[in-house]
Every structure is written in C-alpha cells, then in structure tokens.
Amino acid sequence: MSSTPATTTVLKSLNGAMHSMMEADERVLLIGEDLLDPYGGAFKVARGLSERFPERVLTTPISEAGFVGVAAGMAMRGMRPIVEIMFGDFLMLAADQLLNHISKYRWMYNDQVHVPMVIRAPMGARRGYGPTHSQSVEKHILGMPGLHVVAPSVLHDAGALLRAALLDDLSPVVFVENKLMYARRQLSAEGGRIGELYARSSSDRYPTTTVSWEPFDHADVTLVAYGGMVEIAMEAAETLFFDEELVVEVVAPSSLQPLDLQPVLDSLQRSGKLVVCEEGTAGAGFGAEVISRVSAEGFSLLKAAPKRVAARDYPIANTRSLEDMILPQVADLVRACR
C-alpha cells in the first residue's frame, strides 16, 4: 500500500479501550485463560490489566463452556464482562452457551433479562499455527438470532468498536479479532481521504467504511471484505487500479450480524459487479449471505454474476507454502475482479 496516515496499532487500541473502560466503570471485568501479568493473554491484548485491576481480571481453567457461562451469569446480574477466548477455534467449545442460552435469554424472559457481554475471539491464519489454531469459524454463528457479530479491520477504530459493543449494545457480542491485525496500524480518514484513497463511513454504532482510488462517482467492481481480508482486498484494488486502470471499491463492514447492506448496494449502483471475500471457507459463509441478500434486495443492480473468494476446503496447514495455497491471496482477488 502507498503511504497512509496511521494512528495506533489494533492491539494497543483494544488494550487501551479495556484499560479505560475498567478504570471508568466498575461493572467491567475480564475473564479467560492465562490473562494475568506478566503473560497478559496469548496475544498480549490484556497486558497490564491484572496489575491495575487484580479483582476484575479472572483467570480460569481450560473450559470455554464454563467461563462463557459464568460471564453470562455476571452479565445478567448487572456486570459488563469481556471474555477472552485464547484462540477463536475454541469458540465452538462454548457453542451450547451461545446457541441455547445467552442468545435466547432476552426473548425467553420477555425482555426482562439482558446479557450485555463481549466475547473476544482471535481468528484467522497466516501465522503457521496449523489446523486447530488458525480457523475462521465465525460463519458458524452468523445465523444465531439474538447474537451480534462484530469484526474490526484496519479501516476501523477497534477500541471504539469494543467500547460500543460492551457499553452500548444490550445484546451479547462476539468480537472477531483477526490475529494478523494485532500489529497493524489503524488507518484514519482525514477530510474524506486515507492517504491517496477516498474514504467514507456510515454513522452507525458499527460503521461500514468504503475506500476507492477514485471519487465515488464511478467504480468497476464492488469488493466486500471484513477483518483481516480488508488489507488484502485493498492491495488487490491498488494492483488493479495501477496495472489495469480498474476502479475497485472496497466495502468493509464492521458488523457481520446484523449486516447493513446499504453501503454494498450504494457501491453496486456505481459498479454493477460484486465480489465478496472471506478468510474462512465459502460454503454457507459470509459471502453466500451477502450474495443472497443482494440478489433479493438489489438484483437489478447486478451486471454480472457475483463471485466469492474464500479458503479452499482443507484444514489449514502449518507450512507457509501450503497455508498460502489454502488461503485466499491478493492474486485470487485480482482474478475475481477482472
């Protein structure tokens, strides 16, 4: 990417948000595995919290179902818990809590009970962690009514999204953090620009940000991406613009469920061509949902069949060369957008 204005890293943004929330609000606590300093969690997002707030950083045995359930009880009793899942793959060990409990209590008890909690889940590959520590499993929870799913990218303020998810959202939120993003710097817009890119964002609690190499009066392709795939999508858009003079608008939602489709439809009015990418596998995934909704709500905008770009249907390998073969790459997006 060309030089762009940068603020703090995603990791520092998340860590700073937790520090400030715990300092300002005694209801906020953190629960999970290996959180205590000096370790500070598997990816160090919790660093410094147990030293400052020793009674509100709770380290647990290895039982995701157990500590997610404990946090749910705390939320129903007025606390605002943040749960850290060590690796997002292990979110499936708490599937019963997600599907049969925390996502349903509000409805079961006629809105007299709320479960305002955030479950932070580090997802994704490209770090050589292998088949059971590299997956993007969020598609398996996108169809659970009552559960919100938020996924920041470098185009969003991750700390602000975490704060909104915990303090402003009465629904339980799964907060998807792509592991490769932790060291990345957040890109902030100034005057509608991020460096040479044109940028615009919706004003929702969980905004969608759209970037383009040209003003928003023409586009050849609408490329929808979230989380860690946003940087890859932006690199593909840059390649296509300078090598082939194709204008690709990258649409990056921060909320996967519920999904605000309007920014996608707005972009399709200019492009007529849709490509959706995700790091997980394609079957029954985010891309399938976006394309289904666009077909139902904006079919007349499409000038070509929509395309999905996703991981191949294999377990993710440890070896870098095999991992690259399995996961979607810049070249895959370039081919899909042509």
Automatic annotation (TrEMBL):
Name by which UniProt lists this protein: Alpha-ketoacid dehydrogenase subunit beta
Domain Transketolase-like pyrimidine-binding per the UniProt entry, residue ranges: 8-184
InterPro entries xref list: THDP-binding, Transketo_C/PFOR_II, Transketolase-like_Pyr-bd, Transketolase_C
Native organism: Lujinxingia vulgaris
Pfam families documented for this protein: Transket_pyr (PF02779), Transketolase_C (PF02780)
Keyword Oxidoreductase attached: yes
Cofactors, names only: thiamine diphosphate
Highest taxon above the source species: Bacteria
